[in-house]
Amino acid sequence: MNYIEWFGTNFIGLFEAGGKQFVSFMTGIVPLLIVLLTFTYSIIAFIGEERVNRAIQFSAKNMILRYTLMPILSVLMLTNPMAYTFGRFVKEHQKPAFYDSVVSFLHPVTGLFPYANAGELFVYLGIANGVVEAGYSMSSLAVRYFLAGVVVILMRGVITETITKFLMRKEKV
């Protein structure tokens, strides 16, 4: 009989803890996400959607911008999974590399812009919690993640484009 009481108490306790966590999100992270989204869309509206599209088309012509600026803007403006649609601005042989850059940037962006890929937020917050417990700054971690992410997406984009070109030549595509 004691096991049944324990199970009943702890089973309900699991949902009570989940409810408390949910409320903390509703008073903490959700308003932050809404404000960040509003800010991003306000900037786009202020600059103008056509100007933003022209900037993206311009950056698609340069390899460094194609695998740094384009993925960053696509993730910040369109979020996951819509960020991949900026691939329409690149040539066919560049699409795999662009996709690789975007998908590789979805985690590093989470610290500074959590709305961009909310699914990764729990992973980032778990890591950040450990960093804070170790006595370091979460803000410093977020900036370092972001900057390391920019370097990684550039490297992945250039390498993937090179491999794609090689394979397309080999297959005579």
From TrEMBL:
<keyword id="KW-0812">Transmembrane</keyword>
<feature type="transmembrane region" description="Helical">
    <location>
        <begin position="22"/>
        <end position="47"/>
    </location>
</feature>
<dbReference type="Pfam" id="PF03608">
    <property type="entry name" value="EII-GUT"/>
</dbReference>
<feature type="transmembrane region" description="Helical">
    <location>
        <begin position="145"/>
        <end position="168"/>
    </location>
</feature>
<dbReference type="InterPro" id="IPR004699">
    <property type="entry name" value="PTS_IID_sorb"/>
</dbReference>
<dbReference type="GO" id="GO:0009401">
    <property type="term" value="P:phosphoenolpyruvate-dependent sugar phosphotransferase system"/>
</dbReference>
<keyword id="KW-1133">Transmembrane helix</keyword>
<feature type="transmembrane region" description="Helical">
    <location>
        <begin position="67"/>
        <end position="86"/>
    </location>
</feature>
<protein>
    <submittedName>
        <fullName>PTS sorbitol transporter subunit IIC</fullName>
    </submittedName>
</protein>
<keyword id="KW-0472">Membrane</keyword>
<dbReference type="GO" id="GO:0016020">
    <property type="term" value="C:membrane"/>
</dbReference>
